[in-house]
């Protein structure tokens, strides 16, 4: 079942096989590598249905050849290609992988080689937005990475999330990453979604990648010539600090990273970011390398932490009364939203933020209100602050995507929703709006993408 799992994730296989449909019957035959049964079913079809056989989807975007390739069911592969004349470059238009990408992501070397021998294009971008080399890099299938490169795969082919190098870095596969670098993959290539490969490797720690694996990838990239001060979207040092990666910070400083380059969102140096999170150990690492900040009167580790804490502190009022007031304003705001009085709710949340400007929930709630009343740019700003306050909270990315959708910035909305889905892969609400934004982006592209956002 291991090889098959890549094509069947999130689906109840037994339920599909038991539904009695033509598609389920073909799926079962492919799984069993049962060519006689396939021939029997094909011969029972009329000419019209037989002509559509190659286009039949038997499992969520996958046709028979994609499934057979994913499982390395070679009898079925040979029957489909050599007897029925299936095009080895089919697939992708259904929103699923090509046969070659299906083999690559599953690590099925034999079927991948067979498809290449029969004319599969290693550089075809499929319906998932990736080429086969991305698929192999994703799961660290090193033998197939080498095979594809030897058969003409473009090492820096661009997909929806960047190059295969970005994919290998994102999924923490240093072996595949090294092979790509040995074949002269660009360590400084910039993806509009993921930034540089170094930023991608560091950023992926928020999705569960261990710091040690991330650091291994970073070291390989730096050795290959990656720019440790490339600010795309932020410098590696800024990204590492945001995620509290002490070992990565130490290595980057040793490799020449400049700690005096601020983040793009709020203009904060890595030192200030560390202090804002109360990470004294990180402040101590960064302090000797950072130039004094004029606004910090007491230039010391403790002085920096105290200064940053004061910027996110509640005004000096009796704490219980202040917190009660904030809770009351939140409650009033929630009730106003239920009444669809978004303008009134936004004012209530603004009043609460005057008492506590570090509450991510308040920014999230006000962002919702701003979208509803047409102040989309303000909604986007609030969403960004929400993410800065709580980087691992999916709601902030949902709000950011909604703001971009309101601004007709559908590509940016897709990126925001994807970031949210990485944090919570099973979030049905995020999945729904992601597909909506993807459809909107496709329409933009079809119309030449010239619409301008207005509030």
UniProtKB/TrEMBL annotation:
Keywords: ANK repeat, TPR repeat. It holds the Pfam family Ank. TPR repeats lie at residues 394-427. The keyword Transmembrane helix does not apply. InterPro entries: Ankyrin_rpt, Ankyrin_rpt-contain_sf, Cul2-RING_E3_ligase_SR, TPR-like_helical_dom_sf, TPR_rpt. SMART domains: ANK, TPR. ANK repeats lie at residues 95-127, 128-160, 160-192, 232-264. This is Ankyrin repeat family protein. It comes from Lolium multiflorum.
């Amino acid at each position: 079942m291991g090889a098959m799992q890549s094509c069947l994730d999130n689906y109840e296989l037994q339920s599909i096989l038991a539904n009695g449909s033509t598609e389920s019957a073909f799926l079962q035959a492919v799984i069993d590598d049962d060519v006689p049964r396939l021939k029997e079913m094909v011969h029972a079809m009329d000419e019209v249905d037989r002509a559509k056989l190659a286009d039949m989807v038997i499992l969520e975007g996958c046709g028979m050849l994609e499934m057979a390739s994913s499982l390395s069911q070679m009898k079925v592969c040979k029957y489909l290609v050599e007897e029925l004349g299936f095009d080895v470059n089919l697939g992708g238009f259904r929103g699923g992988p090509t046969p070659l990408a299906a083999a690559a992501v599953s690590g099925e070397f034999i079927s991948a080689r067979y498809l290449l021998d029969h004319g599969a294009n290693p550089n075809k971008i499929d319906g998932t937005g990736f080429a086969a080399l991305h698929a192999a890099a994703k799961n660290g299938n090193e033998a197939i990475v080498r095979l594809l490169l030897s058969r003409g795969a473009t090492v820096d082919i661009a997909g929806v999330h960047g190059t295969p190098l970005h994919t290998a870095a994102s999924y923490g596969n240093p072996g595949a990453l090294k092979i790509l670098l040995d074949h002269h993959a660009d360590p400084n290539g910039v993806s509009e979604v993921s930034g540089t490969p170094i930023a991608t490797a560091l950023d992926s720690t928020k999705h569960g990648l261990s710091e040690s694996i991330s650091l291994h990838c970073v070291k390989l990239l730096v050795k290959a010539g990656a720019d440790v001060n490339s600010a795309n979207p932020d410098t590696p040092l800024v990204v590492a600090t945001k995620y509290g990666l002490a070992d990565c910070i130490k290595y980057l400083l040793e490799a020449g990273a400049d700690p005096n380059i601020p983040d793009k969102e709020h203009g904060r140096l890595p030192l200030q970011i560390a202090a804002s999170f109360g990470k004294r150990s990180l402040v101590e690492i960064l302090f000797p390398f950072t130039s004094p900040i004029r606004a910090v009167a007491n230039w010391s580790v403790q002085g920096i932490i105290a200064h940053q804490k004061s910027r996110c502190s509640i005004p000096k009022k009796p704490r219980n009364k202040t917190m009660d007031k904030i809770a009351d304003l939140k409650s009033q705001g929630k009730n106003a939203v239920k009444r669809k009085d978004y303008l009134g709710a936004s004012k209530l949340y603004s009043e609460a933020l005057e008492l506590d400007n570090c509450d991510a929930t308040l920014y999230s709630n006000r962002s919702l209100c701003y979208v509803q009343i047409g102040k989309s740019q303000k909604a986007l700003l609030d969403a960004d602050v929400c993410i800065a306050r709580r980087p691992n909270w999916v709601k902030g990315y949902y709000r950011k995507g909604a703001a971009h959708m309101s601004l007709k910035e559908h590509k940016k909305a897709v990126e925001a929703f994807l970031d949210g889905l990485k944090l919570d892969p099973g979030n049905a609400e995020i999945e729904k709006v992601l597909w909506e934004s993807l459809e909107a982006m496709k329409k933009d592209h079809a119309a030449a993408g010239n619409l301008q956002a207005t509030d």
